[in-house]
């Protein structure tokens, strides 16, 4: 009898645990995953339009209309005023293909309207306009940034480091969302992947921009005064890592090594720090976790290793370290914002057809990543990079900028060109990441683009 009761209790426990698991999954799905599953372009629900509602507008931060709809011969046509410049952010809404980008993520809002106005419209036999989605992006800065990357492969991500508002998000190559249906076969077969949003979903070796994290780990573990005698190259268990142009820097400390992006120094520093310290610092900076906010992006990765060769590569952002451009911009923003990460977001408000706010999105509470003291030290180093180091091409007339260059080795071809930074250094209003695929030197190719975007941002945002 006791055995029977025990078995009965085990069965009860199994079903209780099973039930709790299902409830837990449903809660997780509804609160964290449902919007993104709903917005997937393969979701057939996105292909069904409410015939009584004209799809709402998408606007920039100043109210400039970026996407709108009109009825032509009883067919709803979607117009993208700035076409390619916003193609990856706004996405497309096509009856045959579904939706992507903001068009998909906020499909429900764009395709619905106030219930009373909807009833009035039906009674009059008129179509009414759907809700409007307002973005944090600036049209002028977005178009300007898009033009700077024209003819290249890569991405630009720019945000306000204090609030997390995304100001520009560019991916190249791009496509024309107005004729995506007609060109669909060509787009999906294009080896350059124009449909890929590189700013959010491109994963790249960070190269020397990762030295920001290695430096943070050094400061956190009392290696601020670490020095080496740089000969221009370093050999780790038969694997040789060279400095740019094999240049020997001689006796060098942390600040100068950061300014000159000395590989030999940072490899030596990484070996001193050890696997655990570097891994833990990467996790603090949101590797393997992802940055929070209203955006959905790939997760940057840092694998914990136990051998010196792998550690040497990781210390300078090579090996199996991968990062997205939006995450790289967030790292720059952390340093700019006294060690605090303001989660990036790109939708500021949803309004109805009369302009009445339905929902407003405010900056989320920031998360402290590193101490203000350490952020100030790294900020000073990043200023030196732009003033006297490898990032001189990012200098801005009339304003002091800060940054870090990166030249990331690429097994498929020429190195990728990186720059992350912010401006003005004393009161940052913009943080940025620029990557030019196969661009070579970060100081020669990504830095000039970043400098131009930062200068433009300071002249147009909230003016």
From TrEMBL:
<dbReference type="Pfam" id="PF21922">
    <property type="entry name" value="PBP_dimer_2"/>
</dbReference>
<dbReference type="InterPro" id="IPR001460">
    <property type="entry name" value="PCN-bd_Tpept"/>
</dbReference>
<feature type="domain" description="Penicillin binding protein A dimerisation">
    <location>
        <begin position="55"/>
        <end position="132"/>
    </location>
</feature>
<feature type="domain" description="Penicillin-binding protein transpeptidase">
    <location>
        <begin position="154"/>
        <end position="455"/>
    </location>
</feature>
<keyword id="KW-0472">Membrane</keyword>
<dbReference type="InterPro" id="IPR054120">
    <property type="entry name" value="PBPA_dimer"/>
</dbReference>
<feature type="transmembrane region" description="Helical">
    <location>
        <begin position="12"/>
        <end position="32"/>
    </location>
</feature>
<dbReference type="InterPro" id="IPR012338">
    <property type="entry name" value="Beta-lactam/transpept-like"/>
</dbReference>
<dbReference type="InterPro" id="IPR050515">
    <property type="entry name" value="Beta-lactam/transpept"/>
</dbReference>
<keyword id="KW-0812">Transmembrane</keyword>
<keyword id="KW-1133">Transmembrane helix</keyword>
<dbReference type="InterPro" id="IPR036138">
    <property type="entry name" value="PBP_dimer_sf"/>
</dbReference>
<dbReference type="Pfam" id="PF00905">
    <property type="entry name" value="Transpeptidase"/>
</dbReference>
<protein>
    <submittedName>
        <fullName>Peptidoglycan glycosyltransferase</fullName>
    </submittedName>
</protein>
